[in-house]
Amino acid sequence: GGYNNVICVGSVDGNDNKNDDMIKVFKELFPLAHRISLEKHFSDYSPLEKKDILERCDDCKYLIVSQPHGGRRQIKYTAFSFAAENTEYIFHQDSDTMVSKSSLLNMAKLAAGYNIKNPNLKPCGGVVGEVRIMNVFNYFTFHMEISYWYAFNSSRSSQSALNCVTTVSGAMGLFHSNGMKKILLDYANQRFLCNKVKCVFG
Which of 1, 61, 74, 117 gets the most CB atoms within 10 Å of its CB? Predict the structure, then answer.
């Protein structure tokens, strides 16, 4: 088998000079990467403008996109919008996440409904990977390691017994592209506190 249409999208929350290092590293890893610098948040463009921007990237296998600083949610919306085009799954990770060789394949199998331990498993919209802290060197990072262990091995593991999880970690997760497209704009524009404050986290 194999994957017929794999694209790699890097996203940078900020167009300032201090963000150039991340773009430089991405271009070093992927010399053929196409660079897009947006003048505003991708969610603020009209549907026609979005369509035009996305069509210009149809043939891009490697893409690095940046936009004005707007927080985690805005840049994830932008990255997901580009990654969801012409793909079946979206695998996302933070820039400091190290991924094991088998993670992506195992997560894709679960999303497709393949699980040798549970042959009755149905395809699902999202899969969360197990994330651990690798650089445990003081009390603070040790506390984070314990928190992560409980989050993935207790909380999300118990939720999985019901074939669902309440949160797919931003550090590592996988989604069906079609399902993601349906909720992307609502995700980017979600508000709380009686609709007064726009969400920037998550």
Answer: 74
* Angle, CA 54 vertex, CA 181 and CA 171 arms, to 5°: 55
pTM, 2 dp: 0.84
CA angle at residue 151 from 147 to 152, to 5 degrees?
A: 125
Question: Quick one: pLDDT at residue 116?
Answer: 65
Q: Which residues of the chain are modeled with pLDDT < 50?
A: 1
Pairing of strands 34-37, 197-198: unpaired
* C-beta of residue 126 within 8 angstroms of C-beta of residue 173: yes
**Which residues neighbour 32 within 8 Å (Cβ) at sequence distance 6 or greater?**
61, 62
pLDDT score recorded for residue 3: 55
Burial of 176 (0-12, 13-18, 19+ CB in 10 A): buried
Please, which residues have CB within 8 angstroms of residue 34's CB and are 6 or more apart in sequence? 57, 60, 62, 63, 64
Burial (Cβ within 10 Å: 0-12, 13-18, ≥19) of residue 78: buried
